[in-house]
Write a structure and sequence with these properties.
Elements lengths: L3 E2 L6 E2 L12 E5 L4 E7 L5 E3 L7 E3 L1 H6 L5 E3 L13 E3 L6 H23 L16 E5 L11 E3 L2 E5 L5 H10 L7 H17 L6 H8 L6 H10 L18 H24 L3 E2 L7 E2 L11 H21 L12 H18 L7
Parallel strand pairs: 8-9, 9-11
Antiparallel strand pairs: 1-2, 3-4, 4-5, 6-7, 10-11, 12-13
Helix pairs in contact: 2-4, 4-7, 5-9, 7-8, 7-9
Length: 355
């Protein structure tokens, strides 16, 4: 993510901030601009933009009613919810305090996802606006003993178990399932990959190359998952980015899509902070954001991201934490990521690409 600043005083601010610590301006992220706006709130509740000439905005309803958002909506829009909150369809009972906390954390992670999608020029539309091609998120709670809410995707509807917002429970699940990585943002990046496969690959000229790289998605999905959980492929590190990716071509795509967003957002953040790493016996590695016009993905991955990820892991270990990037990327995965990059590039360049 790029760095953000208060429009009034220039202080560096962060994606989740709602007020400038220096000048006291109210802050709200403006998705149409991918910038943080600074505002003064009048006695009548109106939000006055503090940058001359900037488009007038109003806060998302979830900003002022539940402190679950800090995004803005164009002032002349009939919409009351921001681009991200419009895609939320079902919530757990917010009368339960734990659910309210979980919902805020979930929406925070989803806004990071939506930021990345918008910055790549990908379409972000709710099913309310586009029933056939839009996306909805449903955040569900297990209400009865033995009931299971499975995180997943089905025809544009993404379901998330709200318990995933509980760090302790999520870490327990990660350990029980022998996963190296499990986060709210990771869930969103994976599941939205299924949505974009339906939108950008299925039934398009990309499909033949997809099958060459990932396999034939027409293989029985339920049987493939059953076989995976019974006996995961021992050779998965040679061809896949994760063990789960080896279960079925759809999961391989979704894991690679999520991984692509990890790299894209990581490189943008490192570049925005001016990261430069010493390289023994060679020129320093300077972070640079991934550009859709870069062409091949492999150079950005190998020359920029891998050294940066090694630094990130070393820093995480210095702080007594897990590796932030617990992945190895074999050559077959590099080719798959390059395919994802080309699909995203084509979609980002298409007319009417963004909501």
């Amino acid at each position: 993510m790029k760095t953000l600043a208060c429009e009034r005083c220039g202080l560096r601010v962060f994606f989740e901030n709602v007020a400038c610590e220096r000048c006291g301006a109210a802050l709200g992220f403006v998705p149409d601009e991918l910038e943080m706006g600074a505002f003064e709130i009048a006695d009548d509740g109106a939000w006055q933009r503090l940058r001359d000439g900037a488009a007038a905005q109003k806060p998302c309803h979830n900003y002022t009613s539940a402190q679950a958002c800090n995004w803005m909506v164009p002032a002349d829009s009939d919409a009351t919810l921001c681009t991200s909150c419009q895609t939320t369809h079902i919530l757990p009972a917010l009368s339960e305090p734990d659910n309210l906390v979980s919902w805020r954390l979930i929406e925070q992670a989803k806004r990071r996802l939506v930021y990345s999608l918008l910055s790549l020029g990908l379409p972000v539309r709710s099913k309310a606006d586009d029933p056939e091609h839009g996306v909805w998120f449903e955040f569900l709670q297990e209400l009865q003993p033995g009931q299971r809410v499975m995180t997943g995707h089905d025809n544009g509807t993404i379901t998330l178990n709200v318990s995933e917002a509980d760090d302790a429970r999520r870490e327990q699940t990660r350990t029980e399932m022998h996963e190296p990585y499990r986060t709210l943002l990771g869930h969103f990046r994976h599941e939205i990959g299924h949505y974009y496969w339906d939108l950008l690959v299925d039934g398009t000229p990309w499909l033949d190359e997809f099958r060459t790289l990932f396999g034939d998605e027409r293989a029985d999905y339920a049987q493939a998952l059953q076989a995976h959980y019974a006996a995961p492929r021992a050779d998965w590190p040679e061809q896949f980015v994760s063990a789960y990716a080896s279960a079925h071509p759809w999961e391989d795509w979704a894991e690679c899509w999520a991984h692509y967003l990890h790299v894209q957002d990581g490189l943008e953040t490192a570049s925005a902070w001016g990261l430069q790493l010493a390289s023994p016996g060679g020129a320093p590695v300077r972070a640079a954001a991934l550009e859709l016009r870069d062409g091949a993905f492999a150079p950005a991955l190998v020359e920029r991201w891998l050294p940066i990820s090694q630094f990130i892991n070393a820093m995480s270990r210095s702080l007594g934490s897990h590796d932030a990037y617990p992945f190895v990327v074999p050559e077959p995965v590099v080719r798959k990521l390059d395919f994802v990059h080309r699909v995203v590039t084509a979609a980002g360049a298409a007319p009417g690409k963004a909501a």
